[in-house]
Design the sequence.
DNA sequence: GTTGAGCGTT
């Protein structure tokens, strides 16, 4: 197919910008997001029904409507209907306030038999549950007797933390987990550490997910699987605004922190000193453990 | 095949 452009605008009656399609006639969401940072999809007004229609989106690829893209103006969708600059503005204030947004709660004392469905059914009476986990032994699959829950509303979280819970015949407590007690300190890095990844989350899915916050320049998943990943943004402020957050990707709560280690070990400090030109080269301290090496890459 | 204070496969 010959080179083609589709017309895209931020609002229905604003001047459209022409966005190039791919050879097969599809349009990449990443191409749209390059011009409209934060975009998560497209919609258009159907000439037939006069209703707004969504453009089919499959794994980051936008597919033309039945009769092709035509000369319609496509309107950019943003997550929760918010534009990127609005997200920027609110995330700036979010860092100061730090409240109102929910965080995962640890649920202690669960009966061995309690399942994630049980947890969800129980906690749904307090508010909308957006994540539940029962921690299990990876070998046996037996519950470890604790889990995590995340609510959509701050009010529900407060209520749940303020009381004990009778779940399947045992008293359980819900608290802020230790990992959330102390706030993570922000630093100037374009790269974030994504902890608690599951094996089924692909690099492409990470890229698609994090694109909503800003341009993603790199995604790194160590192989073999080690339950974490790195995501690099074009803008360090985007990276900083995400640090400390628990984000939910494919139903999994991942924890975002800075790619810089909190406490450098001696070798890392010497290595870093070397990178800043004190005369000791990178190779000067022997090979690095593959377990710490990712933290040292192009931060 | 067990258990009962804890803290999420960096």
Sequence:
């Amino acid at each position: 197919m010959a080179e083609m452009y589709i017309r895209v605008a931020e609002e229905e009656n604003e001047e459209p910008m022409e966005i190039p399609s791919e050879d097969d006639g599809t349009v990449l969401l990443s191409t749209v997001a390059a011009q409209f940072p934060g975009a998560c999809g497209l919609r258009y007004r159907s000439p037939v029904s006069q209703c707004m229609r969504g453009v089919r989106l499959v794994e980051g690829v936008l597919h033309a409507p039945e009769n092709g893209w035509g000369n319609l103006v496509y309107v950019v969708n943003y997550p929760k209907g918010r534009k990127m600059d609005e997200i920027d503005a609110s995330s700036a204030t979010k860092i100061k306030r730090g409240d109102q947004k929910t965080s995962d709660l640890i649920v202690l004392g669960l009966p061995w038999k309690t399942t994630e469905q049980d947890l969800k059914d129980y906690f749904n009476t307090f508010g909308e549950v957006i994540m539940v986990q029962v921690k299990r032994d990876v070998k046996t699959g037996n519950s470890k007797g604790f889990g995590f829950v995340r609510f959509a509303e701050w009010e529900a979280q407060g209520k749940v933390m303020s009381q004990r819970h009778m779940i399947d015949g045992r008293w359980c407590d819900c608290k802020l987990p230790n990992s959330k007690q102390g706030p993570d300190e922000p630093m100037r890095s374009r790269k974030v550490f994504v902890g608690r990844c599951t094996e089924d989350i692909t690099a492409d899915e990470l890229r698609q997910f994090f694109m909503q916050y800003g341009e993603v320049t790199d995604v790194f998943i160590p192989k073999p699987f080690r339950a974490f990943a790195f995501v690099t943004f074009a803008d360090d402020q985007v990276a900083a605004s995400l640090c400390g957050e628990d984000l939910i990707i494919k139903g999994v709560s991942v924890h975002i922190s800075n790619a810089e280690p909190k406490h450098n070990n001696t070798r890392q400090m010497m290595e870093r000193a070397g990178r800043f030109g004190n005369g000791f080269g990178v190779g000067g301290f022997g090979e690095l453990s593959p377990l710490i090496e990712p933290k040292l890459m192009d931060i």
About this structure: Residues 84-97 of chain A form the longest helix (14 residues). Chain A has three domains: 5-77, 105-175, 191-258. The helical segments of chain A are 29-35, 84-97, 116-123, 154-161, 178-181, 203-210, 236-242, 266-275.
